[in-house]
Amino acid sequence: MDEGKGFYNPVDGYWQTNTKPTDDILASYREGTIEVALKPSADHHYILGEWVHVPPTAEELRAKMPRLTARQFRLGLLAAGHTPAEVTQALGAMQAGQQKETAEIEWEYATTFSRTDPLIAIVGTAIGLGDAQIDVMWAGAAQI
User: Fold this and answer.
1) Mean pLDDT across the chain, nearest whole number?
2) pLDDT digits (tens, 9 = 90+) for 69-90
3) What's the domain range around 37?
4) Residue 43, Cα to own-chain centre: how many angstroms?
5) What angle do CA 94, 112, 144 make, to 5 degrees?
6) Does residue 132 share a domain with residue 65?
7) Do the Cβ atoms of 43 and 14 come closer than 8 Å?
C-alpha cells in the first residue's frame, strides 16, 4: 500500500497526498516544491525547514468553541451568577444607536450564539466578565 507524502512550497504552502504521486504529477508541481515529513498536527507550521509547534492563540481557540443554543447560553450565564434580566438591563443601559439595537435584537431573538459573536463581548463587558471568565462559562454551558 502506498503511503501519503507531504509537500511544501513557499507560495502554495503545505499539502499532502493519500498515495505516492506519480512522476508526471510530481513534474506538475510548482518550481521550488519540496517533499517534507507529514505535518504532525494542525498546530505545526513549516518554518526554516522544519515543523514547529505553534500553539493557537486565544482568539483561534475561541473560534473553535461550539455554538451554544440560547438555552445553553442563558443557563451558562445563570450558573456563572448572572441572570438574563441583568443582561437585558445592561443592554438597555447602552448608548442609543445601532450597536445597542443590534445587541438587543440578538439577545432577544438569536437561537444560537458563537463565542466570537460581537454580542458576547458586549454582554461580557456590560456585566463585568472578562474573556477568560466567558471562556470558562462557555465551556460549562456547552455541557448543558
Assistant:
1) 94
2) 999 999 999 999 999 999 999 9
3) 6-55
4) 13
5) 110
6) yes
7) no
Q: What is the DSSP string of 59-100?
A: HHHHHHSPPEEHHHHHHHHHHTT--HHHHHHHHHTSPSSHHH
Are 91 and 25 in a shared domain?
no
What is the identity of the amino acid at 8? Y
Measured distance CA(2)–CA(140) in Å, rounded: 44
Distant-in-sequence, close-in-space partners of 127: CB < 8 Å, separation ≥ 6: 82, 86, 87, 90
Q: Does 1 map to a domain?
A: no
Closest CA to 91 of 109, 112, 67: 109
Residue 51 in domain: yes
Phi, psi for 42 (deg, rounded to 5): -65, -20
pTM of the model: 0.71
| Three-state DSSP state, 24 | helix
Coil vs helix vs strand at 34: strand
